[in-house]
Amino acid sequence: MKRNISNKLTLIALLALFGCAAKKHIPKPPDSIKVVHDSTVAAVNEPPRSTRPLASPLDRAAIQQHQVDFVTFSAKAKAKLNIDGTANDVTLNIRVQKGQKIWVSVTALLGLEGARALITPDSIKIINRLDATYLKKPFSYLYQYAGSQVSYAALEAMVVGNVWPGLINESTITNMGTDDLTLSGNSGDLIYQLFFGAERRLNKTLISSRGIVARNLQVNDNGAMTVADKIIPAQISISTSAPNSTVNISLTYTKADFNTNPEFPFTVPARYSVVN
What we know:
single chain; about 280 residues; globular
C-alpha cells in the first residue's frame, strides 16, 4: 500500500464496512457468487411520482423483518480496492459499537498494519503508520469521496446489509415482479433506488446526488450467509463516482462476531505529526 494513498484507502474502507454474526466459523462464499467491479456507477433517474404507489405496509414489514439488529459487531474481511485506477489488496479488521463508533484497521503485505481509523457521528481520526502521521477531521470530510448521502448511520447499515435509515416509509414502487421489488424515492438532494429479492432482502442500493457536484453510489449485496440465525450478504461491492474520483471496492467475509465486548484501541504515538 503506497504511502500517498493510505489515508484515502482508510476513508474509503469506511464505506465498505460489512457485517455478519456470532461466534462461529463463517463458510467460504460459493463460487457462484460474483463481486461487481464495474467502474461505471449508474445514476438514478426518478420517474414521475404520480405513476407510482407507495410501498405497502406488507412490503415494509417484510423488509423490516430482515433488518439486522446488534449492539456490537466485529469482523475481518479481505478487500480489493481500486481507487482512481490504483489497485490494492488489503485486510480490514472492523469493530462497531452501534450508534457510537466504528474502528477500522487496514493491513497489507506481511500482515503489517498500515493505517487505523476511528469514526464517530461527529469525527474521523486516522493514524497512518506508513509515514507516521495523524489526521483528525469532522465527519463531513468523508463527503468529498462519497457525497453527503453517506451518514454515520448509513455506514452502520452497510456493515450488516441493512437499508439506509429513513429510505423506506416514503418510497414508492417502480417495479414489482413475482420475485423482486424496486422502490424509489428522494431525500433532500438525493434520488435513490432500492432493489429487493423475493423475500424482500436488500440486493442493491443506487443513490445519486442532485447537488452542485454530481456523485453516484452503488452498493451490491451478493449472495446470502446465515450466521447465528441472522442472514447477511456473503459479499459486498461498492462503487462511487464523482467528477474527480472513482472508487471500486469488493469485500469477502472471513470472520465475524455479534454482541461481544470488542476493544477500540486508538492511541497516537507522540512522534507522529498532524497533517491536514
